[in-house]
Write a structure and sequence with these properties.
The protein folds into four domains: 88 residues, Orthogonal Bundle (DNA polymerase, domain 1), CATH 1.10.150; 65 residues, DNA polymerase, domain 1; 166 residues, Beta Polymerase, domain 2; 240 residues, Alpha-Beta Barrel (TIM Barrel). Strand 13, helix 22 and strand 14 form a beta-alpha-beta unit. A seven-stranded parallel sheet has the order 8-9-10-11-12-13-14. By secondary structure, it is α/β, with parallel strands linked by helices. The protein has 24 helices and 14 strands. Helix content is 44%, strand content 12%. Helix 1 crosses helix 6, helix 6 packs across helix 8 and helix 20 packs parallel to helix 21. It binds one DNA strand of 29 nucleotides through helix 2, helix 4 and helix 6.
Length: 579
DNA sequence: GCCGTTTTCGGCCCGACTGTTTTCAGTCG
């Protein structure tokens, strides 16, 4: 958790220096160092021996983009909990100003203007200003014609403020618990319930956490107190202010104790959803609000309680509208994909574009995660920012992938690319290059403000390209930041089905794109689905577990999920374009 | 601030878009 905090601080520093008008390469250096340390395996633990400090410093400096100065800041941070450069900069600039950088259309220059000339120092300030006629007038004078668009973006963020992207809470909980127990209780009997257990992509600020052990609970609280500056315990739970993701969010961890006898119903009660619980009560013809705590459920496990209602166990992810209960009663719940079924990952980046590891490192990590087939899919040339590969570079890259494939045992490595879908729907590489690739993930990355009609036509055209195998993150949304394109998902799913193209559920926690509602439509139509990690760095193979939860919400069957297929089945599917 | 050297300082992923300041600054991906 210390490491994550330090990386966040470097990133905050980078944004602050940008607003203050510092050299842009210095700004970039802090940002890169933050990502580099985050992607590393380095642990932020240090005893005070000079030996171990020197060893730690050597490790830090060996990381890309980390030099002596940032290493010194890290050591200062570990010893003091903060570093002087951070304090120096944030004595000049309010920390809450950082929030404004998550508004689309506001860069460092405009943020500086808003701060210096309108006295706006936080996202809430900005929202209030835009709602006020006089203040909005001054805002328009300052910003010019883009003012209206920025106002829309602020309102989008404001309305989505009560919906916290799940990843922000997941990151927080990993920091506190070290693990994410959803299915069965972890250390101290801890089980994360609520919307996160149900795999929702955005959640409310209240996170129910169940536990049995008082000593473990005490250790968690001690950890929160020592590690979070902005926290407070009140009757609703432990409130922690999280700055991650730009806008400040209050997350409230509600700790609920359970024992041997009330475990079953508490798991059900605190997992929800409300509609699911109401439907269960309807079945029992009971209006008593304390229904679930009644003695008839004492000593029963979750599954036993469902049996009491003559139902099979209902997976948490599908407990939503209440209709799932009737489906379960009819035996109509399909077998759902599970994380253990995932043996393939068809969207992985290396340091040839914007990933952090080379081909062999990625493959070895994949082997250690139990994967049997992966696709290396670095960016194509139009993704300049991501160091996308030119035609010459991708040809060389394909050769390197083939070499790695022959060298590394226990996994099939496909030579692929994540090829940009250009605004008109054509792909960023010509047929000569596309035909050399084992697998093509076609994804939209820019010009994401098209009309629904144009955006749908763009994706449809990409599906119809005979070399396309998967449409990557079809909407291009970033949770809590960018809406992405609006597309006619039914039309796209129908087209994908005809052309035997898979639609991706990109499991990057900031994307989760397609979302579960869209996937329900894909499922109805019967098109193929790919649950991919969009691997960039070491921790990213973890992404898929939450992606799988989102897929389970949509009741995706493992038969249509290409990540569950054997190597032979994948090869057969990919060979269709040779016919 | 980092890197890679022609070892001590210059270069650092960059093209498209937008609006307006009509020649470029600001932002995005």
């Amino acid at each position: 958790m210390k490491k994550e905090r330090f990386c966040d601080m470097l990133r905050e520093l980078s944004v602050a220096l940008d607003i203050l008008g510092e050299d842009k390469y210095k700004v970039q250096a802090y940002r890169r160092a933050s990502s580099s340390i985050k992607a590393s395996q380095l642990k932020f633990e240090l005893d005070k021996q000079p030996e171990s400090i020197r060893f730690f410093e050597e490790k830090l400096v060996s990381l890309p983009y980390v030099g002596k100065k940032i290493a010194a800041k890290a050591i200062e941070f570990i010893n003091e909990g903060v570093f002087s450069e951070y304090e120096r900069v944030f004595s000049k600039i309010p920390i809450s100003l950082i929030e404004l950088s998550s508004v689309q259309g506001l860069g460092p220059k405009k943020i500086r203007k808003l701060w210096k000339e309108l006295g706006i120092t936080s996202f809430d300030d900005l929202y209030r200003c835009l709602e006020d006629i006089d203040c909005f007038d001054r805002f328009k004078k300052l910003i010019g014609k883009e003012a209206k668009k920025i106002k829309e973006n602020v309102e989008f963020l404001w309305t989505s403020k009560s919906e916290i992207p799940a990843w922000i809470v997941l990151d927080l909980l990993i920091g506190i618990l070290g693990d994410l127990p959803f299915d069965s209780p972890g250390e101290g009997g801890v089980l994360i319930a609520g919307e996160l257990r149900r795999g929702k992509e955005t959640v409310s600020q209240y996170v129910p956490i169940l536990y049995t052990s008082d000593t473990f609970f005490d250790s968690i609280i001690a950890k929160i107190r020592s590690n979070f500056k902005y926290n407070r315990l009140d009757e609703s739970g432990y409130k922690i202010a999280v700055f991650r993701g730009g806008v400040k969010r209050d997350v409230v961890l509600r700790f609920i104790k359970y024992g041997e006898n009330d475990r079953g119903w508490k798991f059900i009660r605190y997992t929800g959803s409300e509609n699911h619980l109401l439907r269960l009560q309807e079945i029992a013809s009971c209006k008593d609000p304390y229904f679930f705590s009644s003695s008839k459920f004492y000593g029963l496990e979750e599954k036993d309680i469902y049996n009491y209602f003559a139902l099979p166990f209902i997976p948490p992810e599908v407990r939503e509208s209440g209709e799932e209960i009737d489906m379960a009663a009819d035996g109509a719940l399909p077998p759902l994909v599970s994380i253990d079924d995932i043996v393939g990952d068809f969207h992985c980046h290396t340091n040839a574009s914007d990933g952090w590891h080379d081909i062999e490192e990625v493959a070895r990590l994949a082997v250690s995660k139990g994967l049997k087939v992966i696709a290396i899919t670095d960016h194509s040339k139009s993704s300049f920012m991501a160091n996308g590969l030119s035609e010459d570079r991708i040809i060389e890259h394909i050769k390197r992938i083939k070499t790695a494939d022959s060298k590394i045992e226990g996994i099939k490595i496909l030579a692929g690319a994540e090829v940009d879908i250009l605004p008109d729907g054509s792909l960023d590489f010509g047929d000569d290059i596309l035909s050399m690739l084992d697998i093509v993930v076609a994804s939209p990355h820019f010009k994401l403000d098209q009309t629904p009609h144009d955006a749908t036509a763009r994706i449809i055209k990409a599906i119809k390209n005979r070399f396309t195998d998967i449409i990557g993150h079809p909407r291009g949304r970033i949770l809590g930041k960018r809406k992405g394109i609006e597309i006619d998902i039914r039309e796209i799913a129908l087209c994908a089905k005809i052309h035997n193209v898979a639609l991706e559920l990109n499991s990057q926690w900031m994307r989760l794109d397609l979302d579960s509602d869209a996937l329900k439509i894909v499922n109805e139509v019967g098109a193929l689905v790919a649950i991919n990690s969009d691997f960039h760095s070491r921790k990213d193979f973890l992404n898929s577990f939450y992606g799988v939860k989102v897929a389970r919400r949509a009741m995706i069957d493992k038969k249509v999920c290409i990540n569950c297929w054997s190597e032979d089945a994948v090869a057969k599917w990919l060979s269709r374009k040779n016919g």
